[in-house]
Amino acid sequence: MVKRPKSVTGVYERVPGSDLWSARIRVDGKLVRKSFGRGPKGRADAIAWVEKARTIKRTGEGVLPKTAKRPVLTTAEVAVLGNPDAITVGRLCDEFGRYVKAHPEEYRDQVNPPKRIAEIRKVFGERNAATLRSSEIEAWLDEIQEDRELANATVNKMRGTFSMLYKHGRRKDLVEVNPAADVPLRDVGQGVERFLSAEEEKRLRDVLQRSIDFHDPIKQPELRKQAIHRLLEFEVSLKSGMRRAEQYSLRWGDVDFERRIMRLRKTKNGKSRNAFIIDDVAKALKQLRDLDLERRDRSGNQPNKSPQDVVFAKADNKKWWHAALEEAKIKNYRWHDNRHTFCSRLVQAGVHLKVVQEAAGHASIASTMRYAHFAPSQVVDAMAVLNTKG
């Protein structure tokens, strides 16, 4: 008669007499069961697992598994392998990637952010998000910049994506730290601010008007409407000071003609603000409304996810804008420079810098001060208080 082995608490045959061994322990009031295989080896592995878990439970020196897929680890093993229950960088990548995809209005670029997220995941995906150090992120950014000869601005975008992973993770209570926030930004210089001269504006408006006149209102009504739309896009940009993303995400429900404001919900710093409606902007907006153009679906299997009530029927102005600038012989000028022109013209007209700050939606007066040199008369007038009385 074969002598049965001595029973061990927590170790058992899944089916009595099958010689297929399992083990179970209680972790935080919940039973965790794990299978180990058949025969003496299966039983020995099950016993070792249970005894190791009980030692850790008794001493507190290690990590107990919350599922059968997690290993039992001593403190020394955790130091080498990491906490299996910890949130990984890969988890942060997955969470933030889903958020980006689900919010195309906030993340209009649905190509580059996911690419950067995937690259971060490939390198750091298995790392414990809470223990990743700023120095490691900085060293990696240095490495990829050198290997690929990346511009500082491109590296800053990668660093920014890394930081957003952690910011989103903090909002979701997954992590409490953000090591990427301590990684210094690369210097991209101050750049050169470009402004549209009166002569350049005239040439550009002439080009856009010729495009309108070129299309017959009877034979080519839709093409003519699109040409009119382009001129109105430019008019609103130049005279409202909105950033590109603010302008093209504007919805009719946020346009208040009576109060003469446009409520901008997708701004650079994430906070909503007001843009203001002067008479020329009001006229342009009403013309846009009368055009009654809509954004078209991209394709049957990739529908346009833009809201139905967006003010501007075209979300991408790059193609026609570059063509118009070339025809007007205007060089080194971007759509964003319309905003610089807006601010500089207000200052040149003697508008107080605090008013310009409010109109432009600058977070601090420091940004508005870049345009102060356009109004030396304001400085002289302010210094007049030092004049001798009498």
Please give a structural write-up.
With 390 residues, this protein is mainly alpha-helical. The chain folds into three domains: 11-81, no CATH class; 89-182, DNA polymerase, domain 1 (Orthogonal Bundle); 198-296 and 305-335, Orthogonal Bundle (hpI Integrase, Chain A). The protein is 48% helix and 9% strand. The chain is built from 15 helices and eight strands. It has helices at residues 39-59, 75-81, 89-102, 112-124, 134-148, 152-171, 198-214, 221-240, 244-248, 279-291, 318-327, 337-348, 353-360, 365-368, 376-383; strands at residues 11-13, 20-27, 30-38, 62-63, 73-74, 255-256, 261-264, 273-276. Helix 3 (89-102) runs antiparallel to helix 4 (112-124). The longest helix has 21 residues, at 39-59. The N and C termini lie far apart (125 Å).
Characteristic terms for this protein:
390 residues; mainly alpha; DNA polymerase, domain 1; hpI Integrase, Chain A; 3 domains; 3-stranded antiparallel beta sheet; 15 helices; 48% helix
